[in-house]
Specification:
Pathway: Lipid metabolism
Order of helices and strands: EHEHHHHHHHHHEHEHHEHEHEEEHEE
Helix content: 40-55%
Transmembrane segments: 112-131, 143-164, 310-332, 338-357, 486-507
Protein name: Delta(12) fatty acid desaturase
Distance between the termini: 51 Å
Pfam families: DUF3474, FA_desaturase
Radius of gyration: 24 Å
Domain Fatty acid desaturase N-terminal: 74-119
Structural class: mainly alpha
Length: 535
């Protein structure tokens, strides 16, 4: 059955019963926002767009383009479509955007904050005063209406979250003081540690699509996925499909507690904290009570100089928690559950769904350290469509995310125009999935969960092409994973061990981009070297 998703990148293979993703690309960089991106030495790309001039970025991109002319073999995404590595530069992107798109207005941005606050307050007033036994005697009817209340407040609250996100990128206004003050207040009200998140999110933008340094929804490698489900690497291509109920349970858990898990345990973020140059990440791994979180001033997500900002973020969240405790004592926990906590869960749901689908799609690549660069990483994102709600209540964060990853300081109200401008540069490398509108967006949650289980190279990749990774799954959907034999893997381990012993190679990359000492890089991930030294 032919593909039903429109595309501008490559020819859809008729054998693939999948929707296609349109392509063209937008690049976000902090290049226009000096001082807005906070990063650690560990997480700073060698050629970060936020710390490098456009001219030097152009030369870096030229080198990458020269490298891209080398044979990479045949790269195939999960839909079965041929993939080509982006060949434009960050300067091309920047030059294509009309200058007025970069203009930020504090008054205009504050008017959106006021509008969203009015929506929240008006909704509460109407429901609190009129969805009562006096006006609506039916208890089931009242319960249904209050359920609608939680959904509405969740959407309005997500709009507030997005405006705070604008503040974090300094896209809210030209004033850093206004941006950080408004952002701290808005994010704290939603129990988000503003500065702590701002710093880790900046690192995400500097390493988007980097398999070892990205900060959010970093996919598992084939080896990591096999380990997680208790299988050998070569067995993945032979496994029976995951039951739909298992996918559903995982998806519900992700949507309910995914955001709290991320800020408390760094779930879905990278786990290479030992490379932190200051040494605070030594022995640290993601998880509960490991110190790797957004509230700990000593977290390896930050540097020593960031402690004050982390504590200020904690103060904001602490004040809101104290206020919520007071309100629970005054008005009752049951009322607060409906008024605040269930809408808060809806905010979490939308935040996780949006972020997951911005960076997880069968058409998107990820890159190893050797093949990643800023332009490639920013193009490894996708725009989607959520209709009126997305463009007005959620301030276009779903529809213009590719642009946001090239120039994060462009305010959301100029993002549509800027997106159209960069499409001309990105061409086939721009990706969007607008089929079905809001229903299609929600359906993509299921599709991506079923199709995107781990990443690995394409079967026919050659040379540097083996550093371009695509999603695969054992659900027999889309491009099948590479078939590997146990005999081949066993022989590889033995040969590798002997080679290491003979040459006396001790891989030590503390503070660099390669595998950990005592590990060897395979296309499917990092594996412990036989008899390798301990860290």
């Amino acid at each position: 059955m032919p593909s039903t998703r429109s595309t501008t990148s490559g020819i859809a293979q008729e054998k693939t019963p999948m929707r296609r993703t349109t392509t063209s690309a937008t690049v976000e960089s902090d290049v226009s926002a000096p001082g807005t991106a906070v990063q650690s030495p560990m997480d700073s790309p060698r050629h970060s767009a936020s710390s490098t001039s456009l001219s030097s970025l152009s030369s870096v991109d030229a080198a990458a383009e020269k490298k891209s002319n080398e044979s990479v073999g045949k790269l195939v995404d999960t839909y079965g479509n041929t993939f080509e590595i982006p060949d434009f530069t960050i300067k091309d992107i920047h030059d294509a955007i009309p200058k007025h798109c970069f203009e930020r207005s504090a008054i205009r941005s504050l008017s959106y904050v006021a509008r969203d606050m009015v929506l929240l307050a008006t909704t509460f007033y109407v429901f609190h005063n009129y969805v009562t036994p006096e006006y609506i005697p039916s208890k089931p009817a009242r319960a249904g209406l209050w359920a609608i209340y939680t959904v509405l407040q969740g959407l309005f609250g997500t709009g507030i979250w997005v405006l705070a996100h604008e503040c974090g990128h300094q896209a809210f206004s030209p004033s850093k003081t206004i941006n950080n003050t408004v952002g701290w207040i808005l994010h704290s009200s939603l129990l988000v540690p503003y500065f702590s998140w701002q710093m880790s999110h900046s690192k995400h933008h500097k390493a988007t699509g980097h398999i070892e340094r990205d900060m959010v929804f970093v996919p598992r490698t084939r080896e990591e996925h096999a380990s997680r489900i208790g299988r050998m690497v070569h067995e993945l291509s032979e496994l029976t499909e995951e039951t739909p109920i298992a996918t559903l349970i995982h998806l519900v858990g992700q949507q309910l507690i995914g955001w709290p898990l991320y800020i408390i345990t760094n779930k879905t973020g990278h786990n290479y904290h030992e490379r932190q140059r200051e040494g605070r990440g030594k022995g640290k791994k993601n998880g509960l009570f490991t110190g790797v979180n957004h509230f700990n001033p000593s977290s390896p997500l930050y540097e020593n100089k960031d402690a004050g900002k982390v504590l200020l973020s904690d103060l904001g969240v602490g004040l809101v928690i104290a206020g919520l405790v007071y309100l629970c004592q005054t008005f009752g926990t049951q009322n607060m559950l409906v008024w605040y906590f269930i809408p808060y869960l809806w905010v979490n749901h939308w935040l996780v769904a949006i972020t997951f689908l911005q960076h997880t799609d069968p058409s998107l690549p990820h890159y190893t350290a050797e093949e990643w660069n800023f332009v490639r990483g920013a193009a490894a994102t996708i725009d989607r469509e959520f209709g009126f709600v997305g463009r007005h209540l959620l301030h276009g964060i779903i529809e213009t995310h590719v642009l946001h990853h090239y120039v994060s300081t462009i305010p959301f109200y100029n993002a549509d125009e800027a997106t159209e401008a960069i499409k001309k540069v990105m061409g086939k490398h721009y990706r969007s999935d607008t089929a079905g509108g809001p229903a299609g967006f929600l359906k993509s949650l299921w599709t991506s969960s079923r199709m995107c289980q781990w990443v690995e190279p394409s079967a026919e990749a050659e040379g540097s092409g083996k550093g371009v990774l695509f999603f695969r799954n054992h659900n027999k959907i889309g491009t099948p994973p590479i078939k590997m034999s146990a005999h081949f893997i066993s022989g590889f381990y033995i040969s590798l061990s002997l080679a290491i012993r003979l040459v006396g190679v001790m891989i030590n990359v503390s503070g660099s981009r390669g595998p950990r000492r005592g590990q060897v890089r395979l296309p499917c991930g990092n594996i412990p070297a036989v008899d390798g030294p301990d860290d």
